Amino acid sequence: MAQTQDVVELILQDHRRMEDLFRLMRSVEADRAAALGEFADLLIAHALAEEAKVYPALKRYKNIDDEEVEHGEHEHDEGNKALLELLQVEEVGSDEWDAKLEDLVEAVTHHADEEERTILNGARENVAMRRREELGVAFLEERERQLKAGCGSVDNVRRIVGS
Question: Model's pTM, two decimal places?
């Protein structure tokens, strides 16, 4: 999947995969529960890896707005809460499930769009490729560690959200 080590491109690849999973979760022909399981793992692993390895490093660059980075972390919290709400719905495809899915889509899409326009464009313009590749390796390692730990389980998401 990942042909690059550029952290900007890796994050963008995850965002595109999340969009693909949203389409599957909306499709009555797809295995919506399986798509949600993959999405939950990806969203949590992606956010934790960004917060542990990428965001702290980007805060050191004067042309990348610290407030945008902190806002990104806040939006991760909102996405995690929306994910937990969907994971707790008992019947996949029910009206409640569809409504919670749309809440999740809105929260994550808003965050990804903002992150791409502010943080990632700032990183692309102000961070040398070599450093972006170093961050990419660290991002992938942390993301993989989280995925292996089953980070998208309802119990782990509940723990992260703090409910």
Answer: 0.93
